[in-house]
Amino acid sequence: MASIQLKNVRKSFGAVNVIKGVDLEVRSGEFMVFVGPSGCGKSTLLRLISGLEDITSGEMLFDGTVVNNLAPSKRGIAMVFQSYALYPHMKVSENMAFGMELAKSSQSEIDKRVSEAANMLQITPYLDRLPKQLSGGQRQRVAIGRAIVRDPRVFLFDEPLSNLDAALRVATRLEIAKLHHKMNNVTMIYVTHDQVEAMTLADRICVLRDGLVEQVGSPLELYEQPNSLFVAGFIGSPKMNFITGVAAEPYKCQTLGVRSEHLEIVPAHGVWNGTVVHTENLGSDSFVYVDIGQEEPVVVRVNGTAHFAPGAPLQFSPINNKVYRFGADGKPLKA
Amino acid sequence: MTSQNLNVTDARNAPTVKVLGTSELTQERLRAAMWFLVPMLLVLAVVAGWPLYRTIYFSLTNASLTSLSGATFVGFDNYYSSTTLKSGKVLYDGILVDSDWWNAVWNTIRFSVVSVVLEAFFGMIVALFLNADFKGRGIVRAAILVPWAIPTIVSAKMWSWMLNDQFGIINDVLKRLGFIEKGIAWTASDATAMLAVLVVDVWKTTPFMALLILAGLQQIPKDIYEAADVDGVHPVKQFFRITLPLVRPALMVAIIFRMLDAMRIFDLIYVLTPNSSSTKTISVLAKENLFDFDKFAYGSAESTVLFLIIAVMAALYIWLGKVRFDGGDR
């Protein structure tokens, strides 16, 4: 367990500034998720924390000690890579033991730690196989096992699920969540571009945009109190509806944000009216796409199934006036 | 029920379909493959098969350059024969009891092993260097191939001038630096001739080796080195525990290719150290017997044995390739 502090951390590759001054504290034992669109610098930030990249300026502290120039192996971290990064010529057990073996740990200690990790991840039957004889999900579990064997202060995950298929992704997501509980809440930092992964795993989420921290907070804080148009649009699925121009006028703001689950279809006197473009029936709920003259159709969530013919007229209003008002600068307007 | 029955029938039918499986498409593919192969097989038969057959045939006759058509069959006499004289003394003949032959075999093996080991060693160093990221890497990669691109006759002549005992630049430099007092006849002296040949061959062929190894190095994913950094693996250990095992398949292919090539070395030695018994290899000796000494059948026998040695090595390589070379990919 360790707390990590970043103080005005910057990173440039030549003339390109990737991280443009990040201040962040990752609390001890916390599951922190970095999320953002591709190119926002989230993976670079993780690599700076791991020590695989040097920071250009600023300070990085682990438990209050500056680690700017400390080698990755001395930071007490373990990293799980997107591509698994298993040693292809070594058996699963050798992959997991390699680091300890070179650190000259006793054979009994190595065996104990490897078998414990293998048990935890249910990969004991594969210990004698080569990585190429495993499926993607099994390889990812071996990579996680290798990280566990290192007994690190901090776990770093770099988009660990993005090479898995959808079903396996959900299952492995759960595994990682369980792992965090089982490992006595060791500090974990997890990078993803998938906001659903972020919402389901994180204690706190750090939304990054263009090399800067946009907002840090618990999943619900980000969902309920986004402090910018960007975060409002990034967190939540389906994406928050943004209504601009004349349609937003009744609320006296530049952009009005309203989530599909906070809209209800009304028979008459709706705030907005338009025509149905398309309906997605998912069984438990349905999403109705309504054209009200905006650039993109507005999505309205309906409980259960919905039957609207394309072109049918529809009126809808926000439930309990749950709307987000944003000014011209993309920041929320005070009520 | 119906659908289950249907599945069972499907499963039973499947293998039959496969057995019959020469569909029109498959037949067309086989035919196309054959037509693509035929020209190659014809060319090989004419330029490799026929000469090889003639060589083996002549090695079993008493042919000489002047009477190739008048050759008569003598069995394995060119390889090994014994005659008992009236006095009871037994005389042995044939390449297997020829000291010149064994000297050439020894020279060939010595040259091949030493040159290939050195080339693999230096080739690995050059490949590791070229695999690193630096400015102008493309130009360096192209430049490093120059020694290999120069025709052997040209580079051999060039080196023979550089190594000349009176006018050569190498002796001149060594003299000025005070290492030697008198020019050394590198290519002519028995003590240094093999050394000279090895130096020139290593200079010439290391780039080729480096390029083959480099191709292998580039197959290794970069992220496992990052995993090793996180594991705290020292760079030297990373080389021996990760790079070397993973590049081994490519390295083995390169070494065996070079080995087969080195076993039949001729041009470099013929130009650089003509008529030196300390560097004469099987190919050079066979050429002497075939054309200079008018012992055509005897030279053919020597060529045949060289062919057999190389054929066994090639077969060994293919066998090893099947058994052991699968450790590299994932």
**In CATH terms, what is the fold-level topology of the largest domain in chain B?**
MetI-like fold
The proportion of strand residues of chain B reads under 5%
Q: Can you tell me the CATH topology of the largest domain in chain A?
A: Rossmann fold
Question: What is the helix fraction of residues of chain A, given as a range?
Answer: 25-40%
Number of strands of chain A: 18
CATH superfamily of the largest domain in chain B: MetI-like
Structural class of chain B: mainly alpha
Number of domains of chain B: 3
Low-confidence sequence ranges of chain B: 1-19, 325-330
The quaternary organization reads as heterodimer
Q: Within the largest sheet of chain A, what's the order of strands?
A: 6-7-8-3-9-10
Based on the coordinates given, report the CATH architecture of the largest domain in chain B: Orthogonal Bundle
Which spans of chain A of ≥5 residues are poorly predicted at pLDDT below 50?
Answer: none
CATH class group of the largest domain in chain A:
Alpha Beta
Termini Cα gap of chain B: 44 Å
Compute the separation of the termini of chain A in Å.
Answer: 41 Å
